[in-house]
Automatic annotation (TrEMBL):
It comes from Alteromonas arenosi. It comes from the Bacteria. Residues 103-281 form the D-isomer specific 2-hydroxyacid dehydrogenase NAD-binding domain. Transmembrane segments: none annotated. Coiled coil: none annotated. Keywords: NAD, Oxidoreductase. Signal peptide: none annotated. This is D-2-hydroxyacid dehydrogenase. InterPro entries: D-isomer_DH_NAD-bd (IPR006140), NAD(P)-bd_dom_sf (IPR036291). The keyword Oxidoreductase applies.
Length: 316
């Protein structure tokens, strides 16, 4: 009979969610938020955040399958142990990512911050004047998506609804009817020249580290806004600060960083052209992740290929 270990900061939510789902023959053997309380010799199936799982992984000699609760799995991929199946979560971030990205696309295109910014109590003694600021529209603008994969696919229909042109970049650069153009990594500078807005959803792989560098930033149109909701190490932070200081682009919305939490004295916190959103773009819901696990467990129990299995060499 298959046994499950749950190691998660949201352990009770996972236990409650799985209790509502019929999973034949599955026994929850261990459940904790503390890696030190887990007996690794009893772990066959593990449902866990990658950073917690990495602390017990080397000693889990009976592990057959690890269902990660995150989309990014660098802490696990970096470990030498690879004699098990590792699956990620996909298909649950689309709505949150779509809302996050288009909240800022509309914020900048409609110049929302320039209309009537108000902090604290209104100053009734200050006379107000009718001087509408300049603003634009998303229609006719080009949205460039770095990491044109499954999460990005949810952005394209909404961009088209706003009459935007959409270009993407991914490892293969294969043609797609959903995109107006797709580029390979070697064509990233050509991509940069065309993008009015850039959204990075790049995964964390050796090929994507430092992908957004000084040359890339220099080629962006000066009105461009960069949104990074993928991985922090995709951006060379010193290059981005220089680009912002030199006026190479209008601004940057940053959800992820090389080091998290972002140090309190980091220049990004105080830069007038940076919006820090503290890794909130698309948070995993335990209920949604539990359903991904349940669907995969039924496949596991029937010895079928698992959904979203990670290729350790590719890194995703």
């Amino acid at each position: 009979m298959p046994n499950l270990t749950i190691l998660s900061r949201d352990v009770q939510q996972y236990c409650d969610a799985l209790a509502q789902i019929s999973l034949p023959e599955l026994t929850v053997l261990q459940a904790s938020d503390d890696p030190q309380s887990i007996d690794p010799s009893r772990v066959e199936i593990l449902l866990s955040e990658p950073d917690l799982a990495a602390q017990v992984l080397p000693r889990c000699h009976q592990l057959r399958w690890l269902q990660s609760t995150w989309a990014g799995n660098k802490p696990l991929i970096a470990k030498p142990k690879r004699d098990y199946k590792l699956t990620a979560v996909k298909g649950i971030f689309t709505v949150a990512m779509r809302e996050y990205v288009f909240a800022y696309l509309l914020y900048f295109s409609r110049a929302i911050d320039r209309f009537h910014p108000r902090q604290g109590e209104p100053d009734l003694s200050r006379p107000m004047q009718w001087h509408p600021p300049k603003f634009g529209t998303l229609a006719g603008r080009t949205l460039g998506i770095l990491g044109a994969g499954s999460i990005a696919s949810g952005l394209v229909p909404l961009a088209k609804a706003f009459d935007m042109r959409v270009i993407g970049l991914n490892r293969r650069g294969l043609a797609s009817a959903d995109y107006d153009a797709l580029f390979k990594p070697a064509e990233k500078y050509q991509f940069a020249k065309q993008a009015d807005y850039v959204v990075s959803i790049l995964p964390d792989t050796p090929a994507t580290v430092g992908f957004i560098d000084q040359e890339f930033l220099k080629l962006l149109p000066k009105h461009c806004v960069l949104i990074n909701a993928g991985r922090g190490n995709a951006i060379v932070e010193a290059d981005l600060l220089k680009a912002l200081d030199e006026g190479w682009l209008r601004g940057a919305v940053l959800d992820v960083f090389e080091k998290e939490p972002l140090p309190s004295q980091h220049p990004f916190w105080h830069h007038p052209r940076v919006w820090v959103t503290q890794h909130t773009a698309a948070i995993s819901s335990p209920q949604a992740v539990a359903q991904v696990f349940a669907d995969n467990y039924l496949r596991y129990n029937q010895q079928q290929p698992l959904n979203y299995e990670i290729d350790f060499d590719q890194g995703y």
